[in-house]
Amino acid sequence: MSQLLQLLDSMGRDRWARVVIALLLCAVTVRLVRTMVLRQMDDPDARYRASKVIGRVGWVAAVLLVVSSFAGSLSGLFASLSIIGAGVAFALQEVIASAAGRVAMMSGRFYRIGDRVQLGGIKGDVIDVGILRTTIMEIGDWVKGDLYTGRVVRVANSFVFKEPVYNYSGDFGFLWDEITLPVTYGVSHTLARAMLTRVVQEVVGEHVAPAAKEWREMLARFRVEDARLEPMVSLVLNDNWMEFTARYVVPFDRRRTVKDRLFTRIMDEVDASGGALQLASATSAIVAVPRLEVRLIDGKGEPSAS
Fold first, then answer.
1. Could you tell me if residue 150 is left (phi over 0), alpha (psi between -120 and 50 degrees) or otherwise beta?
2. At what angle do helices 44-70 and 15-39 cross, to 10 degrees?
3. Which domains does the chain have, with CATH numbers?
4. Strand-pair partners of 134
5. With contact defined as beta carbons under 8 Å apart, do 178 and 243 qualify?
6. Residues with Cβ < 8 Å from 167, sequence gap 6 or more?
7. What pTM did the predictor assign?
8. What is the pLDDT of residues 181-230, one digit of tens each?
């Protein structure tokens, strides 16, 4: 560092000139190092992380060079920082909170790149985590299902202190989901339950084993009760129909696809049953029209023929 400052002093006494030269040197050095390092990596995740680390190291080096250009000694730097510290803290309180949120995320494992989260009222996949902001590829909103809207949203990291952070995939990459099936009265409830159980087992049964593996890791890390991962079908009776509910585990990013497969298979089973299975719908039926009697009164108050 001292040799570089001496070189800058030999080029000119103007402090601003030294600052510009120092920043240019840092930029060129970061670009060269990033090119050489990334050229040796094939994994996209490793390349992304290495690029971020190199960039942040470059920023730190640039700040140190600028500070060294304007501060004669370390004690002078501390004195300057103590004078302006209060004002900077007040003016940049949101920035400081966001930086603190980044530190909290690193230590508390709130989320990481690739997780599906809900942060600051925005739900989507985390595609970048910066010092001050988290970048999210949004899902939902006007789009039904867990599909991308195309909007990229940047949320301040300070929201980890202000609102709950919902992580759909961080520690357990599966979700419990449900579908409901209304069946008309008169249909065998045993037949309907057997059909729905068979369909759910065939469609989502493959997810039980990997979900059970991750759930065992959850039980080892957290104080959580053991939960049922196998598909389950339950029945509720209401005034209009029998309502069956199928509950199952599914990967966090396949809810819509799995529901489509389930309902398609259910419709195939209903069509193939020959009327033995019938789905219910909300309908209104008029049983009978009441008889109306009309009587006309003339001017004398006597009923007249009609």
1. left
2. 160
3. 2-91 (no CATH), 105-167 (2.30.30.60), 174-272 (3.30.70.100)
4. 129, 155
5. no
6. 110, 111, 115, 116, 117
7. 0.63
8. 999 999 999 999 999 999 999 999 999 999 999 999 888 888 888 889 99
- Which among 171, 191, 172 is positioned nearest to 181, based on CA atoms? 191
Residue 234: CB atoms within 10 A of its CB come to: 11
- pLDDT for 227-275, tens place per residue? 899 999 999 998 889 999 999 999 998 999 999 999 999 999 999 988 8
Q: Which residues, including other chains, have CB under 8 Å from residue 68's CB and lie 6 or more apart?
A: 1, 5
**Which SS3 state, helix, strand or coil, does residue 118 take?**
strand
Distances in whole angstroms, Cα of residue 145 to Cα of each of 42, 71, 157, 178: 34, 56, 26, 14
CB 117 within 8 A of CB 126: yes
What does the alpha-carbon distance between residue 51 and residue 33 come to, in Å, rounded to a whole number? 9
